[in-house]
Amino acid sequence: MTAISQRSSGLVQRRTEAIRTAAAVDKDRESGGEEDEARRVEEEEEDKGDSKETRLTLMEEVLLLGLKDREGYTSFWNDCISSGLRGCMLVELALRGRLQLEACGVRRKSLLSRKVICKSDAPTGDVLLDEALRHVKETQPPESVQSWIELLSGETWNPLKLHYQLRNVRERLAKNLVEKGVLTTEKQNFLLFDMTTHPLTNNNIKQRLVKKVQESVLEKWVNDPNRMDKRILSLILLAHSSDVLENAFAPLQDDQYDLGMKRVHTLLELEPEKESAKPNANELMWAVVAAFTK
Questions:
Q1: How does pLDDT run along the chain (294 residues), one tens digit per residue?
Q2: What share of the chain is helix, strand, coil (3-state, %, to 5)?
Q3: Do residues 58 and 238 lie in contact, with contact meaning Cβ atoms separated by under 8 Å?
Q4: Using the 8-state DSSP alphabet, how is residue 69 labeled?
Q5: Residue 74 contacts by C-beta under 8 Å, 6 or more apart in sequence?
Q6: 3-state DSSP call for residue 270?
Q7: Dist. CA 5–CA 63, nearest whole Å
Q8: How far lies 73's CA from each of 19, 54, 60, 270, in Å?
Q9: Sign of torsion over alpha carbons 273, 169, 37, 119
């Protein structure tokens, strides 16, 4: 009888210990919930593409659309791509679960009046993104989307805020693409000076990018921005804001070109305030769109 009581007591102790262990695990999971969520969002974004395919950030995709294949540089007349690339950084960080807009409160603020706050400071693995994320995290009081695009571009009259500027962004993005085997590096002489250029070396990757943009408004058009993939929707809108979207549609036949541009204009005519209020919408992405279309 005593042996049975001892065995029963041991069983109860083992059960109690198991319950305590499970509770501790649950507590650890809750404490690391936000970081795990950010990591999960980023992994989901990465897993959407082929694991063997070279993954590009929004900034790299926009720059690649803007680069001349043989010459290896963007148009000298393009004065929109600089601010467009900064907008891409904010959206990329939002899609990766690092940034978000502050709560709108009872009196609903407009997208452009709401501040950008750091949701997670977990490193992204991209130097430019981590640099921008650090600026947002350390800045108090927080700034709006419009302010961050200007600050990161260096387009501010306040000399005390010039340190926020991200310098040589196009060159740094081009070097990233060189490391990924998409571009190569050359020197070209322009009479009075030499310039480093980055001609296209892997045409397959750029063709996949161009095809993805074309199909999103042609064969795979869903006629509902809320059902579109957030990354491809962001790419179309930000490529237009950077004045490089036309390059993706240039190879199309006239009828396809007209149809594609008509659908792009449908997206451009959307009201960011209304779209951001829909379920599963990314508010910061629409705030960036609003900053470029205001």
A1: 444 444 444 444 544 554 455 444 444 444 444 444 445 544 444 444 443 457 899 999 999 999 999 999 998 889 899 999 999 999 999 999 999 999 987 677 899 999 999 999 999 999 999 999 999 999 999 999 999 999 999 888 788 888 899 999 999 999 999 999 999 999 887 777 788 899 999 999 999 999 999 999 999 999 899 899 999 999 999 999 999 999 999 999 999 999 999 999 999 999 999 999 999 999 999 999 999 987
A2: 60, 5, 35
A3: yes
A4: T
A5: 63, 66, 67, 68, 81, 170, 244
A6: coil
A7: 74
A8: 62, 21, 13, 32
A9: negative
Residue 98 tokens, joined: 């690092």
Name the residue among 81, 128, 92, 23 with its Cα closest to residue 247: 81
How far apart CA 108 and CA 37 sit, in angstroms, is: 27
Catalogue the E-assigned strands of 108-264: 116-118, 186-189, 194-197
- Tell me which amino acid residue 24 is: A
d(C-alpha 222, C-alpha 108), whole Å: 30
Q: Which two tokens stand for residue 274?
A: 């209304």
* Exposure string for 246-260, b = 16+ CB within 10 A, e = fewer: ebbbeebeeeebeeb
Quickly count helices (H) and strands (E) in the chain: 13, 4
Nearest Cα residue to 124 out of 80, 93, 162: 93
CA proximity to 61, closest of 252, 255, 216: 216
DSSP state of 164: G
